[in-house]
Design goal:
Layout lengths: L24 E5 L6 E6 L7 H12 L7 E6 L2 H5 L30 H15 L2 E8 L6 E3 L4 H10 L4 E4 L23 E9 L3 H18 L20 E10 L5 E3 L7 E3 L5 E5 L2 E4 L5 E4 L12 E8 L1
Parallel strand pairs: 2-3, 2-4, 4-7, 5-6, 6-8
Antiparallel strand pairs: 1-3, 5-7, 8-14, 9-11, 10-13, 11-12, 13-14
Helix pairs in contact: 1-5
Length: 313
Amino acid sequence: MSDNPPIEFAFPELRKWENGAAPYIHVIESGQPGPTVMVTALTHGNEVSGAIVVDALLEKRLKPRNGTLVFAFNNIEAYHSFDPRTPFKSRMIDEDFNRTWGRLDRPATTVETRRAQVVKPFIERADLLLDLHSMHDDGVPLMLAGPLAKGVALAKKVGAPVDIIADAGHAAGMRMRDYGGFGDPSSPKNALLIETGQHWRASSVTVAKDVTARFLAETGIVEPGDLPLGWRQPSPPAQRVVEVTHAVATKRGNFMPVRHFEGQEIIAKAGTVLGHDDGEPVTTPYDNCVLVMPSTNRPLRGGVTVVRLGRLV
């Protein structure tokens, strides 16, 4: 019997979208002045909820009332490699597409860096970006707003999900959502990354549809009525912001948690032991420490982030 999570929805056939402004990238012009708004899916090839959303909006032939709308399926080769017997392998082919953005001035030597070079001109053109992701483990949806105040402000305008994560990304490499003007506090460009929930839960598709509808309406290039009926969900009573202060990485992949941890779990006391890495204790640095996307409950490679630690602000 497989230990893999169940797949609760059908994967879309995306080869019909190969021909666009670039392979698997579609640009829809309104003919009127306005921002360039980009929605991307499959930054990791097994994160399919976003692909369902982009596929549906392309099928609907959604057209902006002003400005320009760009849709992209990023790591499409990884998506096409999906095998339900080993579903986590299709996250990438050679390397993580979402860690390449700080070194695109170097020769492209992997599937992901070659694809990032194709996507890059469209990212540079975008004023506003929504990057649709999902999670390895079950967890509540998270809006990763980046380290700047402008990202948190945009996440609050979108209005869902409950948890907004203010974070600086990963030591392993720059994310797409932090590239160029998105990561510049003086630039009006802005980006969000939504983690919709576990990769293949039907609930992740519901979250992806809701957040995409909210984001597109907030940009002003479409009206709410232009979007598919039933995508928008009720707003949460309030949102909260978690500022990530520490990212704990395992040295050689030998991190041993003291117990199973849940995402967004709050550890009341500073100094609480979370686990041991090569025998050394890893502890919470302050009271009421939030565990952001813990990956402590599965085998890890050396250098991989085990958990990010944050405080409510």
